[in-house]
Design a protein that fits this description.
The protein is mainly α. It contains three helices and no strands.
Length: 88
């Protein structure tokens, strides 16, 4: 497998992980959504746009999960094989 296929595989795995996370937290009920609910209640006790805040929080967390898993995959999976970056 060449370099571009392995990078594509890492991106696909990261997309699957973040997609599964989004599916799990956006399908009610989700215990994970208690954290953004508590943050929103502390910031805005009136409760304006609570659902939008929770969805934005979940999307941001999924984006961070995608970036983190892509970075880990590129750093550890690709470098251990000696394809990109300095050899281990």
């Amino acid at each position: 497998m060449d370099k571009s296929k392995k990078k594509l595989l890492i991106v696909l795995i990261s997309l699957i992980l973040s997609g599964m996370f989004l599916w799990a937290v956006l399908t009610p009920p989700s215990v994970f959504n208690m954290l953004p609910f508590a943050i929103h209640e502390a910031i805005s006790p009136a409760g304006n746009s609570e659902q939008a805040f929770i969805i934005a929080f979940d999307l941001l967390f999924a984006l961070l999960l995608f970036i983190g898993s892509s970075w880990l995959g590129k750093k550890y999976y690709v470098n251990k094989i000696g394809i990109v970056g300095r050899p281990c």
